[in-house]
Write a structure and sequence with these properties.
Blueprint (H helix, E strand, L loop, with lengths): L17 E4 L8 E3 L23 H14 L3 E6 L9 H14 L4 E6 L8 H7 L1 E7 L5 H4 L3 E6 L2 E3 L1 H21 L3 E8 L8 H10 L4 E6 L16 H11 L17 E2 L7 H11 L11 E4 L6 E2 L8 E7 L6 E8 L7 H10 L3 E6 L4 H9 L3 E4 L2 E2 H10 L29
Parallel strand pairs: 1-3, 3-4, 4-5, 5-8, 8-9, 11-15, 15-16
Antiparallel strand pairs: 1-10, 2-6, 6-7, 11-13, 12-17, 13-14
């Protein structure tokens, strides 16, 4: 594996090799005062936003498409839109799939470092060889100004005790990463009036820990964040901070403040086709292993998806022959009778425990909530059963069948985008 092909760590190849970020981590375990992840606009580039959040299997379908359409992708990373290790199951599952399917690909993650510790050994074993940690201070008086809260385990901590726990876990993680020979980059956000005169001390401490490179990133003022009133530091201020920090540790000078769904060469916006594919994949049913081999359909005639769940007295069950691609009918299952309230939907979810998805013409909030909790993906579609089943089992586009109402983002109304995650 040629580690020199990571464009974020090697400025010489930043225009030759690209990266793709898989947005599978919506939740975050800290609230930075400079961050607001509620809105996404395709016209802005900043960390913490994405056009859609993907499940691991959806991310693999999306990745396959990106690697076909975008040349010279050398890195697959997970950067959010929350924190990868506030979503450890999704993060680790995705990384395992990428490593298995693309064993020569460089893998990396970007995290605040609070919860990465228990996963470092497994990351090293699966070949994750680049990790970025955002560390903005080493002084509790300064650090306590940067965060509204830190959620550690089941406790939500106030700014000062929260920062002390965060810093402790960050320093432990950095030491462990270097023990495992994982290339480590530190991102430090330059926040005027808060930490701008403290960053050289951060650089000196990171050098002691043998961190490989420091990335001093100017604040991006986010509407809705506590620091929204602060201005972005000038180029001269950034240059001066980098010059001082460079006395202690190598600097990254070409950061583009990438989105959690960035794909391609640094600094280039995602194409319309990539954006549409991301949103399309987010609507696909999640694909499970062979323990969930079937698909359930509500149909009046056995040919079309044309019945609402509440009216269906039976559901048609279909399977998929992986060898020849054939969709085959398995059986019809009688649905629980109406009249038992929420228990009806609990019983239905048990009945469909071997199904990866349910396709209907419509359903109410109660069955949607219960079935979703049991990880049965629900799709409201118009079309033939065969088309729908092929899309589910083979990962084909079902964009022309999906019933949805997506509000697009535009320059005139930049707050009208798709939500980029949440707690």
């Amino acid at each position: 594996m040629d580690l020199s092909n990571h464009p974020c760590f090697n400025a010489k190849i930043k225009g030759l090799y690209g990266r793709v970020h898989l947005p599978v981590a919506p939740r975050c375990n800290i609230q930075c005062n400079y961050c607001d992840r509620k809105y996404d606009c395709v016209n802005e580039s900043r960390p913490g936003v994405t056009g859609a959040v993907l499940k691991p299997s959806q991310a693999m379908i999306y990745l396959n498409y990106v690697l076909e359409k975008v040349k010279n992708i050398s890195v697959v990373g997970i950067t959010g839109p929350g924190d990868p290790f506030a979503n450890p199951d999704e993060t680790m599952e995705t990384l395992r799939w990428v490593q298995k399917q693309y064993p020569g690909m460089i893998l990396c993650v970007a995290t605040n470092g609070l919860a990465i510790g228990p996963y470092i050994d497994e990351l090293a074993e699966m070949g994750v060889n680049h990790v970025t940690i955002t560390l903005n201070a080493i002084d509790p008086e300064i650090g306590s100004q940067l965060y509204s809260f830190v959620r550690h385990g089941k406790r939500t901590l106030a700014p000062k005790p929260g920062f002390e726990v965060l810093l402790e876990k960050q320093l432990e993680a950095i030491a462990h990463l270097k023990e495992r020979n994982i290339t480590t980059k530190i991102n430090t956000i330059i926040i005027p009036g808060v930490n701008e005169n403290h960053i050289e001390a951060v650089a000196e401490k990171m050098a002691e820990l043998k961190v490989d490179i420091l990335n001093c990133i100017p604040l991006y003022p986010n509407k809705g964040a506590n620091f929204a009133h602060l201005e972005e530091p000038s180029k001269s201020v950034v240059d001066n901070i980098q010059k001082k920090a460079a006395k202690h540790i190598p600097q990254m000078y070409h950061c583009k403040r990438c989105r959690a769904d960035a794909a391609g060469i640094l600094g280039e916006s995602n194409s319309r086709e990539i954006i549409e594919k991301l949103q399309e994949c987010a609507q696909m049913p999640e694909i499970y292993d062979d323990e969930r081999p079937y698909l359930a359909v509500a149909s009046l005639d056995g040919r079309l998806v044309n019945q609402k769940l509440g009216k269906a007295e039976k559901l048609l069950i279909y399977g998929h022959n992986k060898d020849n691609g054939e969709i085959y009918f398995v059986e019809a299952r009688k649905t629980p009778s109406p009249g038992s309230g929420m228990q009806r939907w609990e019983d239905l979810s048990d009945m469909l425990s071997d199904c990866r998805a349910l396709i209907v013409a419509g359903l109410g909030d109660n069955p949607r909530r219960v079935l979703s909790q049991k990880k049965i993906d629900i799709l409201e579609l118009d079309g033939t059963i065969i088309e729908a089943a092929e899309a589910v089992f083979e990962g084909h586009s079902m964009d022309f069948m999906v019933q949805r109402d997506i509000q697009a983002c535009n320059k005139k109304n930049p707050m009208a985008g798709i939500m980029g995650g949440g707690f």
